[in-house]
Amino acid sequence: MKHYRPSSGRGKAGMSREIGAEIMRDVTIHDDGMSHFGGISACVTGPMGCGKTTFLLQLAQSVGSLTNGKSKENYTASTPLMPETVIWRGRQLDYWNTLTPNNWCKSFPQTPLKRQVCVHVFENDDEKLRFFEDRIPSREVVFDGNNLGYLTYSTASDLYSNLIKGGINVVYEPTVYYLQTDIVEELVKRTLYDLRLKRLKKETKKKKKEEDADADPNISLMHEGRDVQAPSGIFWYELLEELVKRKPQREYVSIFIDEAHQVIPMTPPGEFWHLLAWFGNSMIDFRRKNISIFFSTHDTKHLDYRVTERILYYFWMPGSRTYPRVSMLDPPITRIIDKGEVIPELSNRKWGYSQFDAIPHQPPLIRVEGMPAST
Ligand SMILES: Nc1ncnc2c1ncn2[C@@H]1O[C@H](COP(=O)(O)OP(=O)(O)O)[C@@H](O)[C@H]1O
Ligand SMILES: [Mg+2]
User: Fold this and answer.
1) Is residue 191 assigned to a domain?
2) Is residue 156 part of a domain?
3) DSSP conformation class of 270
4) pLDDT tens digits, 269-320
5) Higher model confidence: residue 135 or residue 10?
6) What atom of ligand 1 comes closest to residue 50's alpha carbon?
7) pTM
8) Is 358 in the pocket of ligand 1 (CB under 6 A)?
9) Quick one: which atom of ligand 1 is closest to the CA of 54?
């Protein structure tokens, strides 16, 4: 049964602040995935200009984890929190400079934590990418190593080793990316094999040929022994796999992917459709491994359904579209909220009302030269 009826006339007053606050707590505070809830997944949805990036930036500053095996159900305002390691996907036009200690304190002087910010760039792009603040006259970003660091990486594994623990790591994926053969094998084989086997079994049934059911698992893969040039966004699958494999259980990581359709598109090309199946499957491991993931998108139908169906929490912004597959809300509900208001939902279970502020001293937009405009 749906909890909201547009005709009820209750409007915003009928939306629960308590449930809204509870969902905000559950999304930003994480406990251990073995004994308690673990990492979460969330998606902020709404049209351009509705405040998605502003909201994500504030979530990125507020994520924290509980120590000593405590559960978030007993959390109070005085419970100590550990800052999590944040990974923020860097885009060509971005606002990550908002997060540096100097800039954040100008806007929110009461923030208890000052998180170091570090930009990570692929070594082959080191000379190629240049960072500017979009002001007049435009000014090149200064990496002073203190307020704002800069590091290069050669592989996803190298990047993992370079991550600033408890800091904000802005990661620029390689502009030209080759998926390594062994990773292709590991990630694709299982999925392709399953699919191939399924199809073979179907055909077998049809033809009544028993021998086809034992398909050879060494099916030929798309790469034929070479590294494969892949859409740059696929680098994230590799990085997430690295995290699942290497990250110790007691370390908490939150990943932020703004404009997530660039990384998990609804219609991925060719073989990458299969890789996305893997991405959806490994989201189950994220929870247990204390990895949280936050997406934003204009419309959930722009994201692959195998991922959206596994997202636990949705944040509906003004004018966003809800869909029955992922939400218990009727679409007109998002028309009655205004900028700075959001409807948090535990997908198809409960929903409420919450608010967030604009960033009072928003620094100028970051513009990166040398990377494709679509990222
Ligand atoms: N809570 C808010 N109250 C008032 N203005 C806001 C609020 N959140 C964001 N804005 C403003 O709205 C504009 C668009 O915000 P942005 O976060 O970039 O949206 P989106 O990422 O959805 O395109 C910005 O100018 C921002 O300052
Ligand atoms: Mg945005």
Assistant:
1) no
2) yes
3) T
4) 666 777 787 788 778 899 999 999 999 999 999 999 989 999 999 999 999 9
5) 135
6) 22
7) 0.89
8) yes
9) 17
Domain that holds residue 248: 38-176+243-369
CA of 358 to the centre of ligand 1 (A): 6
Phi, psi of 308, rounded to the nearest 5 degrees: -60, -35
pLDDT of 331 > 90? The answer is no
Omega cis (within 30) before 137: yes
In ligand 1, the atom with minimum distance to the C-alpha of 362 is 27
Query: CA 22, CA 354: separation in Å to the nearest integer?
Result: 10
Ligand 1 center from residue 339 Cα (angstroms): 8
Instruction: Pull the structure tokens for residue 153.
Output: 């990486």
- For residue 311, the Cα-to-chain-centroid distance in whole angstroms is 10
CATH number of 85's domain: 3.40.50
For residues 91 and 88, give the distance between their C-alpha atoms in angstroms, rounded to a whole number: 9
Q: Vertex 335, ends 98 and 19: CA angle to 5°?
A: 70
Residue type, 179: L
Cβ contact 363:103 at 8 Å: yes
| Residue 225, number of CB atoms within 10 A of its CB | 8
200 within some domain? no
Do residues 294 and 257 lie in contact, with contact meaning Cβ atoms separated by under 8 Å? Answer: yes
Ligand in closest contact with the CA of 298: 1
142, part of any domain: yes
Among the bound ligands, the one closest to the CA of 257: 2
The structural domain count of the chain equals 1
